[in-house]
Amino acid sequence: MDKPIYAALKSIGACIPDRIVTNDDLAQIVDTSDEWITKRTGIKERRFASSNQATSDLAINAAKVALNRANIKPSDIDMVIVATISPDFLCMPSTACVVSSALGIVGKPAFDISAACSGFIYLLSLAKSFIESKTCKNILIIGAEKLSSIIDMEDRSTCVLFGDGAGAAVIGATCDISKSILDVNISSNGEYQDFLMTPGCGSRNPITNDTINDRLQFIKMKGNETFKIAVKTLTNDVVEILKRNNLSKDDIDFFVPHQANLRIISAVGEALQFPDDKVAKTVHKYGNTSAASIPITINELFEEGKIKDGSRLLLDAFGGGLTWGSALLSFNSV
Ligand code: UT7
Question: Pfam families attached here (predicted)?
């Protein structure tokens, strides 16, 4: 019988745009304040890409770091998947095709997925399936967003929350289960689709002067409702994945939740009784970067030396759709 193959995270990389936008900068544009944003969200600043940078440019830079750290040539990548809600182009080509071409990955499948802030967990689930079914040996996954292109700079309730960035990982095959992505759990509930959405410019409300004048191309959010369901769902999700793997919080080196709001992160961390220093936080620096937030945060933990080869990570995300998911994995650095 063939030896079982497992999927492992082999490297991480990120790209954070240079331009820092502080809360005080936003207070020049909308009726808000550093005090309100800090108290309600924990965000102090975020990064905005420049006008000539698209989502793929951030994704390509993050991918180059991940490929380099994995010591893998583009020609060894069998598939490229990008999770984004702010693709380079509304319909086609996919951002993954643009990224593949720029990296010299030719003749391999490349496609985008849309799972909003849960995008990176969905990517892990897909990559694990393709590798463990022996369809692929190495997959490049990227969560990348230029959310500054889809936020309404006239809506103070949303424009202060989001930022731009990208995070990438190489997922490869291993025979060593202790190095693997142990488990991934992904879910959705479209009943709450209107909690977090961009209502315009798709087939439901095609691009017309009216949709544009009504600003339907931008992110709309029912913040309060989303907040409550996020805390409950993120907490339950972790309880479930730990239980089904016979693990406890003490077996986890770092809890890496999606970075939407420090109050959500703290509430979930406290409900699960994780010590504060085991809960990863980058939301104060980058805001909510949707599909990029978890890989950017893992990259930050790695670059700060807080995680090393063999560290066990628990990831947990929640976002528009609604979608959510969690993952248990070992961090590996080649
Ligand atoms: O990433 C996917 C998942 N996303 C999330 O999970 C986000 C979940 N939601 C949240 O993080 C929070 O609900 C927000 C940060 C979006 C909002 O915080 P909140 O404590 O729920 O505030 P709120 O929406 O209840 O608004 C409270 C007040 C309102 O004024 P009134 O009606 O009490 O007079 C808002 O108009 O704060 C006002 N407000 C603001 N004031 C200053 C809303 N946005 C702002 C602002 N600056 N930027």
Answer: ACP_syn_III, ACP_syn_III_C
Q: Spell out the per-residue pLDDT of the chain, length 334, in tens.
A: 678 999 999 999 999 999 999 999 999 999 999 999 999 999 999 999 999 999 999 999 999 999 999 999 999 999 999 999 999 999 999 999 999 999 999 999 999 999 999 999 999 999 999 999 999 999 999 999 999 999 999 999 999 999 999 999 999 999 999 999 999 999 999 999 999 999 999 999 999 999 999 999 999 999 999 999 999 999 999 999 999 999 999 999 999 999 999 999 999 999 999 999 999 999 999 999 999 999 999 999 999 999 999 999 999 999 999 999 999 999 987 6
Assess if residue 1 is contained within a domain.
Answer: no
Q: Does residue 89 lie within any of the structural domains? A: yes
Ligand 1 centroid from CA 109, angstroms: 40
* Overall number of domains in the chain: 2
Longest Cα separation, the chain: 66
- C-beta separation of 238 from 264 below 8 A: no
Token output for 81? 């998947």
Determine the atom of ligand 1 nearest the C-alpha atom of 258: 1
Same domain, 170 and 193: no
Pocket residue to mutate for ligand 1, from 22, 28, 33, 40, most atoms within 8 A of Cβ: 40
Question: CA 324 → CA 225, 257, 266, distances in Å?
Answer: 15, 11, 18
Q: Residue 249 carries which side chain, given as an amino acid letter?
A: K
Q: Which of 156, 177, 198 is the last residue of a domain?
A: 177
Q: Three-class SS of residue 189?
A: coil
Which residue segment(s) compose the domain that 320 sits in? Answer: 181-330
